[in-house]
Amino acid sequence: QKEVEQNSGPLSVPEGAIASLNCTYSDRGSQSFFWYRQYSGKSPELIMFIYSNGDKEDGRFTAQLNKASQYVSLLIRDSQPSDSATYLCAVGDMRFGAGTRLTVKP
Amino acid sequence: EAGVAQSPRYKIIEKRQSVAFWCNPISGHATLYWYQQILGQGPKLLIQFQNNGVVDDSQLPKDRFSAERLKGVDSTLKIQPAKLEDSAVYLCASSLARGPPLNIQYFGAGTRLSVL
Fold first, then answer.
1. Interface contacts A/B by beta carbons within 8 Å
2. What is the pLDDT of residues B54-64, one digit of tens each?
3. In what order do the strands lie in the sheet with B75-79?
């Protein structure tokens, strides 16, 4: 059984802080990794994807991948109240984690 | 560019009834996915199509769920008969292809199913 694990949270950070979201996966053969954001009652929307070890930055978001340790993380800098949502990690053959609920407090 | 279209948006049925959902992917997207998302959980992949062929249906409850993608474009997902535990949002997604870097998925708005 291929597993994708995320801390369920909730994670609460103050506005302007860095939010750190983590995800581990069991399938060592996975080649692609995604972070989706899902607002309550809405469908997931893609934030970042990463295929290679290391960091990938896009605006306030940084994805970090470590295939040897089988984890992928998402950092959100200068967190805003509008970032409050559930963040879903998806791996390779489209297995999703349960999501981490993030709340950014003004 | 039009996104992934799904219908209906909401459906309420009684247990043991049947229901069908429809999905039209983004034009040119060869890969189509159906997910079930129960409240508070992540999406669970039910079935993946590459064009009109099934790539992965290992998590599809085949005794009651069926799906098809005729002509490699639109797809329908059917539940017959429905159970209370089928209450969930059914999400359709599509991507250009299966493997990286073309496997970025775009999701439709989903169909919220309530089974009473």
1. 50
2. 999 999 999 99
3. B5-7, B19-24, B75-79, B65-68
pLDDT in tens, A67-95: 999 999 999 999 999 999 999 999 987 78
Are A21 and A100 contacting, i.e. CB atoms less than 8 angstroms apart?
yes
- Are B72 and B51 within 8 A, CB to CB? yes
Give residues with Cβ within 8 angstroms of A92, minimum separation 6. Answer: A25, A27, A29, A30, A31, A32, A33
Query: CB of B58 within 8 Å of any CB in chain A?
Result: no
Looking at the complex, report in whole angstroms how far the Cα of residue B23 sits from the nearest Cα belonging to chain A: 14
Q: How many Cα atoms sit within 13 Å of A104 on the Cβ side?
A: 18
Residues of A within 8 A of B56 (CB-CB) are 93
Task: Label residue B110 left, alpha or beta by phi (over 0 means left) and psi (-120 to 50 means alpha).
Answer: left
Q: Which pLDDT belongs to residue A21?
A: 96
